[in-house]
Amino acid sequence: MRQYKTFSYRLFNLFVNLVMLTSLLLCLTPFVYMIALSLSSPKAIINNEVFLWPKGFNLESYKQIFTYPNFFHAYGNTLFYTFAGSAISLGLMVLFAYPLSKSKLRGQKTLMKLVIFSMFFTGGLIPNYLLVSSLHLVNTRWAMLLPFAINQFNLILLINFFRSIPNDLEEAAIIDGLDYFGILIRIILPLSGAALATVGLYTAVFFWNDWFNGLIYLKSSQFPVMLFLRNIVTGTSMVGDAAGSGDKTTIAISIKSAVIITSTLPIIVLYPFLQRYFVKGVMIGAVKG
Amino acid sequence: MKRPDSADQTITTRKYLARYWQLYLMIVLPLLYFIIFKYVPMVGNVLAFRRYRPGMGAWGTEWVGLTYFRRFFEDPAFWRAFRNTLVLSLLNLVVNFPIPIIFAILVNEVRHLAFKKVVQTVSYMPRFISTVVVIAILGELLSPSSGIVNLFRMKVLGQKAIYFMNDTTFFRLIYILVDTWQYTGWTAIIYLAAITAIPQDLYEAATIDGANKSQQILYITIPSIMPTIMVMLILNVGRLLSLGFEKVLLMYTPDNSMVSDIIDTLVYRTGLANQNYSYATAIGLFSGIIGIILVAGSNSLSKRLTGDGIY
User: Fold this and answer.
1) Hey, where are the domains in chain B?
2) pTM summary value
3) Domain B71-305, CATH homologous superfamily name and number
4) Among partner residues B44, B121, B291, which is closest to A130 by beta-carbon distance?
5) How many CB pairs under 8 A join A and B?
6) Touching check for A24 and chain B: CB below 8 Å?
7) I want to staple B78 with a disulfide (CB 3.0 to 4.6 A). Which of A18, A159, B72, B145 is the partner?
8) What pLDDT does residue A241 have?
9) Does residue A204 come out as left (phi exceeding 0), alpha (psi in the -120 to 50 range) or beta?
10) B286: pLDDT strictly greater than 90
11) Mutate to test the interface with B, among A2, A9, A126 (most CBs of B within 10 A)
């Protein structure tokens, strides 16, 4: 392998590493900038002195946002939607996916067609809205939890995973006298940790990030934190008291950044530890059933 | 008890159910859910052909035929949204289809394994950040008074600040670049998996024959992942009408509406903001039907060309 020493090889290597370094910086810089802004003093921000390192370091904006009842509520709401939504979603999807993973079960093919068709043709915004409102779910937290409880992509991911579990295990369990609920709970689920983690994470991220359903269905006390943030950005809601000073906009910048960071922090912090599950989903999902 | 298998074809329904009733019981709740939340709204599309009157139910009151379709076909706002949707989608496809492929090829060439891992991990992350957060950060970066992009223009280049987020000339560019930022790393996973599956001896043989890196990429890597590229391309064409609605809605301002009003935002505004439910349903149904034709068409094309489809 003489090639490793040639000039053109080194040039190529340099080019590859430069591109990678640039991509790395492009992905991270926006967050570093937001962190720097949120930790800087209003004076430094108004003088445009802040870039990637905080100037006039202080935690004032973080202290402030947690005194705003709106933000505090919204954050709590998001936590609730994420946990409740993921629990409902996983429960329904597991119950659906297990029978659907048995390709010889009568009716299974029809049900699969039903699921797949609904991935390509949907009711659309207005019929969905009218459904939720005729079920009297508008202005209730259910409007956030129910309409997207089953995601067809995640469902198929689970079905594919259940299919990959060897049949022998199930046959042995049947001989031992277990019924299908018993098999699902005691054999299939314990073996599906990775798939459940993957689907659970996708679902949790969906609920954590969802704001549009909140916008069309909920009243302000039920808003999730993403909708709260969106309303600050569009100026439709005030962050807190205007503080009565001339540098309102700069206060708003550090506060906005603090809201951005706090509402994204759980994902950024947990992401490195959980990313292998996120990626696994693409791989399981790519194996077609 | 036995598992469902071909021998069961012969047994009676009663016996079959006695054996497998629990599996059917499991299905009941999710199926009910599925019918209510996925299929009832699908049927709810009949509203496009019926007049909606407030307080008289979600299904409308009387049949009006194609009235609403005729109305939006004559509406310049619809055609503007239709054109905006197509232009934005096509531009996005042209830019953001090749980028993940190039990125995957380059990531694969990184020799330092720890660095490679870090790059990959970090590049997937934007996919999991809320669009609200992405657009909020963007708003701060591009702000005319305090954003770093404009500070650079004013202080270093001595130019005037531009209100990027309100500017019709920049809307499409910004949308597309944000898409690049959000999805490049994530989409590259699929190509990376295809690249990893290429047999290493192909490269070894090429090296012995004196092929350099760029020749190896051009004559081994790219042809080997061509089937994956084709399937992805066809999938993308099938999704041509479904843009990132939430992102466009977050970037939408009355000032940039000339280019930022797409079909989905038009449906949202006429339907939910102005409560023209039937009219908006008709527009939504029309774009839904074009969407399904595109998917079905591109899928059969994919099957013919690559022997592989998405369903």
Assistant:
1) 71-305
2) 0.89
3) MetI-like (1.10.3720.10)
4) B44
5) 263
6) yes
7) B72
8) 42
9) alpha
10) yes
11) A126
